[in-house]
């Protein structure tokens, strides 16, 4: 698979990565054996970048990803994140960062983390102080590159002034365009982007169902695209996008990932699936080139992203 460069510090990764959140939390029951098979299928098909976080199962996701990648550790980059409490409140207190990062190294079974992210802003801790602790791990050889996630353009600028930031991770898809507000600062500072939820948390997977079809603990119960007042309009968008995809002989998921790849040359989407066949489907998007006419049609179908009233 083609490589993309994220930032100016040397981080090179596959054009499509693998997001491992669903192997541990959020999308219904998971099976570790199947998840490991999906992760290894991704690697076999050219993926070299794998993303997880302490929050994904509070360490269970890191442990699973570490086991899956152990035989091929030297062939991949691994990203993880700190910054939450078990009640999902922000926590980037400096001692907490050290505790989580030390734990992540152990759970992943690695001597270094390739990309370390602050998972979310903590208003009680200046980002310069957060980056100062992250820099300690870079200087110790335990972290290679730094990133921010779920933040603001101003925080990106402040963090980068304290230590070079290689990558911003944020949600970005045909349904979610707010990431584009970061483009000016990322281009100015030479920072890449990793796009999570590139299939709009499953709405663009080709298998979307109403909220009633998902379990009570499924994240989609709380996402406005699935709200009863929005679902029909968003399903209509999906129908039009699917027609375009079928006219090109591809799936809706492949069209959606290819759309992201076409936006900028330093964007890396990280779709996640526990199904090896779906992983292969997603990764085939790397071979799909969309024309200007295709991109214009997608813009007409979903001009502002998904419908939220």
Automatic annotation (TrEMBL):
Keywords: Oxidoreductase. Residues 15-301 form the NADP-dependent oxidoreductase domain. Gene3D superfamilies: NADP-dependent oxidoreductase domain (3.20.20.100). GO terms for cellular component: cytoplasm. Pfam families: Aldo_ket_red. One of its GO terms (molecular function) is oxidoreductase activity. InterPro entries: Aldo-Keto_reductase (IPR050791), NAD(P)_OxRdtase_dom_sf (IPR036812), NADP_OxRdtase_dom (IPR023210). This is Aldo/keto reductase. It comes from Agromyces bracchium.
């Amino acid at each position: 698979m083609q490589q993309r460069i994220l930032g100016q510090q040397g981080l090179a990764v596959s054009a499509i990565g693998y997001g491992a959140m669903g192997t541990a939390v959020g999308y219904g029951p998971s099976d570790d054996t199947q998840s490991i098979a999906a992760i290894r299928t991704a690697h076999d098909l050219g993926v070299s970048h794998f993303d997880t976080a302490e929050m994904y199962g509070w360490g269970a996701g890191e442990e699973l990803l570490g086991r899956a990648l152990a035989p091929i550790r030297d062939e991949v980059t691994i990203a993880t994140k700190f910054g939450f409490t078990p009640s999902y409140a922000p926590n980037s207190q400096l001692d907490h960062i050290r505790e989580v990062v030390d734990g992540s190294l152990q759970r992943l079974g690695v001597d270094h983390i390739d990309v370390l992210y602050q998972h979310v802003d903590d208003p009680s801790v200046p980002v310069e102080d957060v980056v100062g602790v992250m820099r300690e791990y870079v200087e110790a050889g335990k972290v290679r590159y730094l990133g921010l996630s779920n933040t603001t353009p101003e925080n990106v600028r402040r963090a980068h002034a304290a230590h070079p930031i290689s990558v911003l991770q944020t949600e970005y898809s045909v349904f979610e365009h707010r990431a584009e507000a970061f483009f000016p600062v990322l281009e100015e500072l030479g920072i890449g982007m990793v796009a999570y939820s590139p299939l709009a948390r499953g709405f663009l997977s080709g298998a979307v169902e109403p909220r009633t079809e998902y379990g009570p603990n499924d994240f989609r119960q709380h996402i406005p695209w699935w709200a009863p007042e929005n679902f029909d309009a968003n399903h209509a968008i999906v129908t039009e996008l699917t027609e375009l995809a079928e006219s090109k002989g591809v799936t809706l998921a492949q069209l959606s990932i290819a759309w992201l790849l076409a936006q900028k040359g330093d964007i890396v989407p990280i779709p996640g699936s526990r199904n090896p066949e779906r992983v292969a489907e997603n990764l085939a998007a790397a071979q799909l080139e969309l024309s200007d006419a295709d991109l214009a049609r997608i813009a007409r179908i979903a001009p502002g992203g998904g419908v939220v009233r």
